[in-house]
Amino acid sequence: MDLVVGIIPQCVRGRRAIIVLSSETVHLGKVGMDVITISRQLGSLGSSVGRGVAERLGYRLVWRELINQAAIRAGAPEVALATIDDLDLLGMTPTPKRQHKYLDAMKQVMTEMADTGKVVIIGRAGQVVLKNHPQSIHIRIIASQEVRIARIAAARKISREAAQAQIETSDRTRKQYLSRFYQVNGDDPGLYDLTINTSRMDCQAAVELVCFAAQRPTK
Beta 3-12 vs 15-22: how paired, if at all? Predict the structure, then answer.
């Protein structure tokens, strides 16, 4: 049996990760995935990984823009504000009718972007909305709570206690969003094609892994 070997440099602690793929499952010449969704925890480097992947592959990065377009299409700017309020600082509670109108618009905009291709979508339940899109790959970026606390405290110049409180609020808000509007558990590994723990891996290594997975020839 012939083997195709891919080498990703400096993946974990400066070591090389060698991934061996059977030629029975790899069909050279076919295009990989050109729609990448990134689900991430606060402090996991997920947003930075998404930006790095988009830059490396020459893909369009969609994040806040997606929220704005959906809000404009739905005519519900207050819902957009509530959506980006991961820390629940604004205390906004849009009506269910306006919320669902916004979610419908979000699905439409996201699907249109995915159909165009060559796009990295950060957040907004992309792993659920586009779960059946034939050219999509869904990535989850996580890290240990201790590492996340240290990163947020350093990045925002706040105490570890304040960082922990922000992380817990963000986790709770994101979990409730997915549960309430999509009836899924965001921690369910079945929602993702690849989960990356950045506790002992830098952003560049995570970018390499995502790009490798996305560019792998499809069956």
Answer: antiparallel
123-181, pLDDT tens digit by residue?
Answer: 989 999 999 999 999 999 999 999 999 999 999 999 999 999 999 999 998 998 899 88
CA atoms within 13 A on the CB side of 174: 17
> By residue range, what is the domain housing residue 132?
33-203
Tell me whether residue 179 is in a domain: yes
Is residue 14 within 8 A of residue 202, CB to CB? The reply is: no
Calculate helix-pair angle for 96-116, 64-74, nearest 10 degrees: 120
Residue 70 inside a domain? The answer is: yes
Q: Angle 46-57/203-215 helices, nearest 10 degrees?
A: 50
Q: Which pLDDT tens digit goes with each residue over 195-207?
A: 999 999 999 999 9
Residue 18 lies in a domain: no
Indicate which CATH number applies to the domain containing 134. 3.40.50.300
